[in-house]
Amino acid sequence: MPSPKEDPAFLPAHTLSAEIAARRLSPIDVVEACLRRIAAFDGKLHAFVEVYEKDARLAAEAADKAIRSGHGIGPLHGIPIALKDLIEIEGRVTTGGSFVWRERRSPVTATLVRRLVSQGVIVLGKTHTVEFAMGGWGTNQHMGTPWNPWDPATHRTPGGSSAGSGVAVAAALAPWAIGTDTGGSVRLPSSWCGLAGLKTTIGRVSTFGVLPLSPTLDTPGPMARSVEDAALLYRAMAGPDPLDARTLVRASAEDPIPGLRRGVKGLRLARMPLSERAGVDPEVLAAYDRSLEDLARLGAEIVEIALPCRFADYTEATGRIIAAEAYFLLGDLIDNDALAIDEAVRPRIRPGRKISARDYLAALAEREAAKRAFAEALAGVDALLTPTTQRAAIPLEAVDQKSTPAHFTRFVNFLDLCALSLPNGFTTSGLPSALQIVCRGEEEALALKIGWAYEEATDWHRRRPPEPGA
Q1: In-domain check, residue 127
Q2: Residue 88: domain span
Q3: Model-level pTM?
Q4: Which residues are part of the catalytic machinery?
Q5: CATH number, residue 275
Q6: What b-and-e string marks burial along 28-40, b requiring 16 or more CB atoms within 10 Å of the CB?
């Protein structure tokens, strides 16, 4: 039970659920706590594009009355959430992070929003993203870059493209949020903001009503302050949708909650090859090595495997598919130099116009062959463990926009795997580092089980960033 003086904004969603169900806490209290923090701190943090203050309050009042009258509709009823500004809500502005689309109104509501609202979740508002979701650093030239809350003095990379979602959850402006991940865009901000972020298998969660970047690779996923919260939100999001054909060919998603606490004893977890340690910051490597030791103490067997390619090879191949598909979708905007398109984003998409149909189809064929080869390499192991990022968040002035921080994340999208990022340490400067747990496609429940066991054995996820301006 939380302390009577505990600000509801800091409570994990699973605790909020229990407190609301027991009527020790009202959805009104929770929404008001989040709105107070947004009013106090988002001027600096710049997490939100728009806050639905009036509607969130009305929804909280309705949830409170329903629950008090015995008409609660489930464990998520009355819990607020933030949505990345790629996710459509009919009639609302959805900019996709683009100044050009600043007045664009959504014609539909995303399936994942309908699914969450039907379970009583309250939408607080939309969060900032890299323009068109095309970038891992989290920057946005025209709409503004969210401020990573772990360093109040220096504007550092929040991670992208789901930058605002990461900042909002880390700074307790929302208990959890939805991001999207095409090459790392859930896991990168989760890493740099100290969160649990789940990259879901393609087809697990409907992308209907989510503005696309690369339809072959796009995946929505939860971002939360604990693995249990990520599991709850994933369960609420996942499932078949007639409006997204890929969700109809997947096996039914395994509910991660019943097996979440079963531990890792007997699991075989692979460390990354020694060659992949080059270029990784020593403090990040030290945290990674400690994570392996912690999991070994919990009963997992840490093993060596040989991979068919270097991660960098997958990074380049992923980039070709993203560029080709993004240019198909956005080429008219990218080629119009009169439009205010982010100077870092335009060069990432424009190369797509030089990719021929033959080269694009070859990239897709290469992906299928790579998936088979990687599956053979993972035979006999339950998960592959890597750092999520090569270094902790860096100052914005140090960002090389021609590079990508997605070294350890893009291969997961390319190979149609799932992965969980979660905090595994802090640098001497007080910045979070993260462990990535990579599992086969459709094995989200396994990744979450491993993550929960690790999280329970450590306390990294319990740390809070300093208050903005403190």
Answers
A1: yes
A2: 12-309+369-462
A3: 0.97
A4: 84, 161, 185
A5: 3.90.1300.10
A6: bbbbbbbbebbee
